[in-house]
Amino acid sequence: MPDIGRVITAMVTPFREDGAVDYEGAGQLALQLVGSGTESLVIAGTTGESPTLSHAEKLDLFAAVKDAVGDRAAVVAGTGNYDTRESAELTAAAERSADAFLLTVPYYNKPPQEGLYQHFKAIAAVTVKPCVLYNVPSRTALNMTAETTIRLSDIENIAGVKEASGDLSQVSKVIAGARAGFRVWSGNDEDTFGIVSLGGYGVVGVITHLVANQVGEMIDLLRGGRSEQAAVIHRRLLPLRDAMFSVTSPIPIKWTLRRLGARVGPLRLPLVDLDQAAADRIWAEVEKHALDLQVRRPVKVS
After folding, report:
1. What are 267-296's pLDDT values in tens digits?
2. Options 2.60.120.1440, 3.20.20.70, 1.20.1070.10, 3.30.200.20; CATH of 7-224
């Protein structure tokens, strides 16, 4: 299976001012992220406003980003939702453009653990490419247990899990009990230090839009046994992480990227932009950091 990297960015989706997907802008942003330390890109994940994207838009977005980055980065296509059949159909349709797939725990219908197992097993069966599970109870109102994740790890092309439960005890059980080669990525930027310290593989991040090289350096230090030096980076980046999640994500990161001059455009409803007080607080924090992402000089965002 292809290696999809340790530093993965859950990329925002650029829109034009009329609300249409900006496919050229998506390719441009993807190249900027890869040039600043991102190894792979999750496209049409939560940070990419996936609930507001049609299947046709997602497929075109996967293709546009893959055309832009080529072999320089893997495209991890967000194809999972709460409908097993629909998720499998989208996964199969995206096979041509995607290098791997991100499959979220179903939200709203809250299946039992056996339902989760059968859901992911059915989707993984339509592709030979790597599938990454996504456990994010804060958004799905359902936690996939360590036991279910370990059971799913026995399916050959289920390559790992993006763990955003915030429960390091659960993550430890997965790392210890899953089959050899099964990878655990932190799904919360603030948990990357802890999860990698426990033997996790990397991160699927949001702040990696801005500081991917620094996050990668922290991971490399941890893997090399230099936890004290890694902790310095972890502590330095925590306030930036807090700023990016001070309002529902991806609102702050998309505003910040626009402020930096990136071609990302507006949000789609029901998400709305920052009020001025929140914008001022976030920008004050951003200005304290040496960013890896280089776009152009900052612009005024109304």
Report:
1. 999 999 999 999 999 999 999 999 999 886
2. 3.20.20.70
Residues 6+ apart with CB under 8 A from 282: 243, 244, 246, 252, 255, 256, 274
Of 186, 182, 164, 227, give the one whose Cα is nearest residue 7: 186
Residue 207 pLDDT: 99
Q: Which amino acid is at 265?
A: G
Mean pLDDT of 144-166: 98
Structure token pair of residue 244 = 């990016």
User: Which distant-in-sequence residues (6+ apart) come within 8 Å of 127 by Cβ?
Assistant: 91, 92, 95, 101, 157
CA proximity to 146, closest of 104, 100, 177: 177
- The residues annotated with a catalytic role in the active site are 134, 162
